[in-house]
Design brief:
The protein is α/β, with parallel strands linked by helices. The chain is about 35% helix and about 25% strand. The chain contains 9 helices and 11 strands. It has helices at about 45-55, 90-95, 100-110, 125-135, 155-170, 185, 205-210, 215-230, 250-255, and strands at about 5-15, 20-30, 35-40, 60-65, 70-75, 145, 175-180, 190-195, 200-205, 235-240, 245. The protein has a 6-stranded mixed sheet, sandwiched between helices. A 3-stranded antiparallel sheet has the order 2-1-4, with helices on one face. The chain has a two-stranded antiparallel ribbon with strand order 10-11. It is globular and about 50 Å long. The protein starts with 6 loop residues before the first strand and ends in a 9-residue tail after the last helix. It binds adenosine-5'-triphosphate. Adenosine-5'-triphosphate binds near residues 16, 39, 43 and 44.
Length: about 260
C-alpha cells in the first residue's frame, strides 16, 4: 500500500444475496483531501462508507487502511431519548475518552464552545450537526467520515457547515469522506467527487464531473447548470497573512491542491 494513501480500495464488489450493490469500485483517500460521494437513492453510497469503516466485508476486492488509522464518524442522525437529560458536555463525555481540553478544542473547531452547558434537546439542526462533528473530532481522526452532514440544516447553515468542514480539513490535515445530496453547495468545498451508481459513473474534480455526460444523464441538465453556476474557479490563492497571490502554473492545473486557496 502506498504510504501517500490512508485508504486504498481496489476492485471492490459487495452483494446482498443476488443484489450487486457495489460493482468493481476502486478509489483512494489521501490526507488533506475532501472526497464527496454523490449518487441517486439506493446507489450504494452508505454501503461503500460502511465498507470503508470496516462494518461490512467485501464480497470480493480489497480495502486497505493505513495501520493505526484513526477514523472519526459523524452519523446522519442520532436519536437521543428526549426524556433523558443530556448536556452537550455530557454527550461528548460518553463518546470517547478525551480530556476536558480536547472537548473544548473540538467544540472550538466547530465554533460551538458556547453550547457546552446546553441541553442537546434544545439545539437547532445546525447546532446539533456541529456538536456531532465535534464528537467525531474527539478521536483526532486522520479520516473523517460524514454521512449527509447537512441533513436538517437550513440553507444558510448548510453553506456554513461545508465551509466549516473545509476549515477542519485545513486545520487537522485529515481526509474527509462524505455523502452529500447538496451538490451545488458541496462543490466549492470538495477536491474529488465520486459519482456512484453501484459502479463509479465518473469521478474527478468537481468541474470535470459536472460536465461529464454520465453525470448529466443521472442528474439532468438543470443540476449540471446549477453546478456550473456554483462551482468555484480557483483563480488565486492566499498566503498566511490572507494576501491574494496569483496561482502558480502547477497549482492552477491541480484543483485537488489543499493549501491556502479557497
Ligand atoms: N444489509 C443489507 N441487506 C440487504 N440489502 C441491503 C443492505 N444494506 C443495503 N442494502 C441495499 O443496497 C442498496 C444500496 O443501499 P445504500 O443504503 O448503500 O444506498 P444509498 O446510495 O446510501 O441510498 P440513499 O441515498 O437512499 O441513502 C439498496 O437497494 C439497499 O436496499
Amino acid at each position: 500500500m502506498s504510504p501517500a494513501n490512508l485508504v486504498e480500495i481496489t476492485a471492490l464488489n459487495i452483494s446482498f444475496g443476488s443484489n450487486s450493490v457495489i460493482d468493481n469500485v476502486s478509489m483512494t483517500l489521501k490526507p488533506g483531501e475532501i472526497t464527496t460521494l454523490i449518487g441517486p437513492n439506493g446507489a450504494g453510497k452508505t454501503t461503500l462508507v460502511k465498507a470503508v469503516l470496516g462494518l461490512l466485508s467485501p464480497t470480493s476486492g480489497t480495502i486497505r487502511r493505513a495501520s493505526t488509522l484513526r477514523i472519526g464518524y459523524m452519523p446522519q442522525k442520532l436519536h437521543i431519548d428526549t426524556t433523558f437529560p443530556l448536556t452537550v458536555e455530557r454527550f461528548l463525555k460518553t463518546a470517547a475518552f478525551a480530556s476536558i481540553e480536547d472537548r473544548c478544542l473540538a467544540l472550538q473547531a466547530v465554533r460551538a464552545e458556547h453550547l457546552l452547558k446546553q441541553s442537546v434537546h434544545s439545539l437547532s439542526g445546525g447546532e446539533m450537526q456541529r456538536v456531532l462533528l465535534a464528537r467525531a473530532l474527539l478521536r483526532k481522526p486522520e479520516l473523517l467520515v460524514l454521512d449527509e452532514p447537512a441533513q436538517g440544516v437550513d440553507i444558510n447553515g448548510q453553506t456554513e457547515l461545508y465551509r466549516l468542514i473545509a476549515s477542519i480539513r485545513d486545520k487537522y490535515n485529515c481526509a474527509v469522506l462524505m455523502i452529500s445530496h447538496d451538490l451545488h453547495l458541496v462543490m466549492a468545498a470538495t477536491d474529488q467527487v465520486i459519482c456512484l451508481n453501484h459502479h463509479i459513473c465518473c469521478s474527478g474534480h468537481p468541474e470535470q464531473v459536472s460536465a461529464d455526460p454520465s453525470y448529466i444523464e443521472l442528474f439532468g441538465i438543470p443540476g449540471a447548470e446549477n453546478l456550473a453556476l456554483y462551482s468555484h474557479h480557483h483563480n488565486h490563492q492566499h498566503n498566511n497573512h490572507g494576501d491574494i497571490l496569483p496561482l502558480s502554473e502547477e497549482t492552477e492545473n491541480d484543483h485537488s491542491h489543499c493549501g491556502g486557496h479557497h
